Amino acid sequence: MTQKLHIVGGGMAGSEAAWQAAEMGVDVVIHEMRPKVGTFAHQTGNLAEMVCSNSFRSDDDEQNAVGLLHWEMRAANGLIMKTADAHRLPAGGALAVDRDPFAEAVTAKLRSHPRIEITGDEVTTLPDDGHWIFATGPLTSATLGEAIRAETGAESLAFFDAIAPIVYADSIDMSKAWMQSRYDKGETEEERTAYLNCPMDKDQYEAFIDALLAADKTEFHEGETAGYFDGCLPIEVMSERGRETLRHGPMKPVGLTNPHQPDVKPHAVVQLRRDNALGTLFNIVGFQTKMKYGAQTEVFRMIPGLENASFARLGGIHRNTFINSPTLLDVQMRLKSKPNIRFAGQITGVEGYVESAAMGLLAGRLAAAEILGLDLPEIPKDSAMGALIHHITGGAEAKTFQPMNVNFGLFRPVDGLKGGRRGRKDRYKAYTDRAKAEWTCWLEQS
Ligand SMILES: Cc1cc2nc3c(=O)[nH]c(=O)nc-3n(C[C@H](O)[C@H](O)[C@H](O)COP(=O)(O)OP(=O)(O)OC[C@H]3O[C@@H](n4cnc5c(N)ncnc54)[C@H](O)[C@@H]3O)c2cc1C
């Protein structure tokens, strides 16, 4: 066996990818630039360093999508999960991890693997040959970022995310909201009704602005703002610039008629746009925010129609390098313009330690199978792994693509189950049962 797999970045994704490929019998070289070249967030030279919180979030594999992802990674001999379990700290239903021993153990395990070599170099180009996985994360080094930008085009690589909150469609009160594009623009009925609109009268608008101004906000981390620009201002910063600013920006009411009250002109309108092909998720247009999570749910539930909204993810703005995966990657995470290169981890537009490691697990297996000449069956869409990879490589709206956590809104509905909050428990159990069966079957066939 002469063909090696090169993995750039030994974070959550790169470490898991290396482990999976090596366990399948492929020789791996990990190129990790730390500690020679640092980032503003990493503190050590260890692989798989957790840069901020020490939580892998919920460990509930029956009622929570991230817990299900834990389950699937454990079933697939995942190094990150196995090591996290070994260094677990008490945290109720969450999986909290003792970060330093965790990263030291991952590093030791990879260093001692007979098929894995670790080099300390920064990779600055996208090679034309060989098998490569780029898993350089949210803080990809600047020179490599430029090389990726040259390959993908400036509009396909972002250095900050600007995440607007995402709402489950079935939690929106359609007796108050309605579907309509501004001025009914569009060639087809689908385009003319592409937006979901929530109306506000003057009192509701004024109360909403007061709540935005008073809400608790998070700050950027030190060093995080370098290169931050004015193009994606948080909604609360826009409201600080004047009480009417939002009414002339993302909340302008023009070109819209409320069919529930056709004679009343709304004072302001909040618009939501479909976020996935399944139509199960809607993002609140222009509502990127740095409000704290608790404040966000309180403030956004003041919007008529969203009083009982369930959020698939809340908003945020972070330093985050990520590519437009829905347009750039094929279903095997290969760069369409250079198929000898795969991307994995947070740079593909997933977010979080767990999701990043999960995409590393898939990329490692897919790359190893290619090198070994094995045909892997398609990754099952109804598993958490499958829901996530299919979202980033095609299911997500490419034009508005922003990083995504795993959530049940990415899953195909199970027929015959009650929607809304009441049916949630049974629905989630049905999703996780189906996912486990499909993932187990895929592992057996792989
Ligand atoms: C400030 C900050 C706070 C965060 N807080 C959280 C949180 O609380 N919870 C959470 O779940 N997620 C958080 N994240 C996101 C989290 O860091 C990622 O989800 C996860 O680490 C991504 O895994 P990854 O493998 O894709 O990238 P990383 O884990 O970042 O690994 C990428 C690796 O690539 C290396 N690298 C970069 N460029 C090169 C190069 N050119 N050559 C060689 N090596 C290179 C880096 O040194 C790094 O080790 C945070 C991110 C940031 C930036």
Quick recap of the structure?
By secondary structure, the protein is an alpha+beta fold. It folds into two domains: 5-160 and 321-445, FAD/NAD(P)-binding domain (3-Layer(bba) Sandwich); 166-314, Elongation Factor Tu (Ef-tu), domain 3 (Beta Barrel).
What would your notes on this structure say?
Residues 5-373 form the MnmG N-terminal domain. It comes from Ruegeria profundi. Its main location: cytoplasm. InterPro entries: FAD/NAD-bd_sf, MnmG-rel, MnmG_N, TrmFO. It contains 13 helices and 17 strands. A hairpin with a 6-residue loop joins strand 12 and strand 13 (281-284). The protein is 32% helix and 17% strand. The chain starts with a strand and ends with a helix. It has 2 domains: 5-160 and 321-445, 3-Layer(bba) Sandwich (FAD/NAD(P)-binding domain), CATH 3.50.50; 166-314, Beta Barrel (Elongation Factor Tu (Ef-tu), domain 3), CATH 2.40.30.260. It has a 6-stranded mixed beta sheet with strand order 6-2-1-7-17-16, with helices on one face. Strands 10-11-12-13-9-14 form a 6-stranded antiparallel beta sheet. It has 446 residues and is α+β, with helices and mostly antiparallel strands. Bound molecules: flavin-adenine dinucleotide. Residues 8-14, 31-34, 39, 41-42, 51-53, 122-123, 135-141, 144, 221, 319, 345-347, 351-353, 356 line the site of flavin-adenine dinucleotide.
